[in-house]
Amino acid sequence: MKTIALLLTLLCATVVEAQVEIQEDNLTIEYENTNKAGQIVGLGNITNVYSKSKTWVQYSIKVRIEMIDNKKRPFDPNKFSLIEPQNKIRLRPIDIANANYMNQWHLFRLIKDKPSYKSLEERYKPDIKDTYVDYEFEGIENVIIPVSYDAYDKYKISIKEPKKVAHESYFEPRNIKNQNLNLYFFVPESAKSATLYYGNQKIAEIDFK
Q: Could you write out the DSSP letters of every residue in 158-196?
């Protein structure tokens, strides 16, 4: 996927930090901080998904994941969501990366629909469930923001620019033990606050300043 550098402006958030235990997943989640997201190497706050929209702003929410038994276990990132009360919407992460900028990796994004291009076939794994849709909140609308991927047939040679196709996306679970993660969300520019959830469990109240 092509990337374009964004101007990075740090944005602090006010929140009471707390470690939340998720017993059914055998892990704890601790909120750490929130910043505007960018693509400046060396800050450990880099996303590979961008938008030119002036009405949506991308934020990075840093959390600490720890398995209670200190063993490496499957972690389901699709349970994360951000509820923005002003517009009564629920948002999912558009990108998730580890917070270690010296060895950064991004969780692998999967697509919901069967692709028309061979280059995207590895992203289509219908046997992996998208658990984000298992959770609903009364009076709150789930907002779907498709991700555009560079699409091309790698078995053909073409002088044309690759097309871009948009897909509703989710994440492939990954085995982790203890990990700092940056969750990237697109949030309406008008948003003043939001609540981070993991499934139905509230993780943190965030005030954007």
A: -SSPPEEEEE-EEE--EEESEEEEEEEEEEETT--EEEE
H helices of 4-71, in order, are none
- For 62-106, write each residue's pLDDT tens digit: 999 999 999 999 999 999 999 999 999 999 999 999 877 666 789
Q: What is the pTM of this model?
A: 0.84
Q: Which residue has the higher pLDDT, 72 or 15?
A: 72
- Name the E strands within 9-167: 13-14, 19-22, 27-36, 56-67, 73-75, 80-84, 89-91, 95-98, 109-111, 141-142, 147-151, 163-167
**How many CB atoms neighbour CB 196 within 10 A?**
23
Q: How many Å apart are CA 167 and CA 145, to the nearest integer?
A: 9
Q: What is the pLDDT of residue 154?
A: 60
For residue 208, the surrounding DSSP H or E stretch is strand 201-208
DSSP 111: E
**Domains in the chain: boundaries:** 13-208
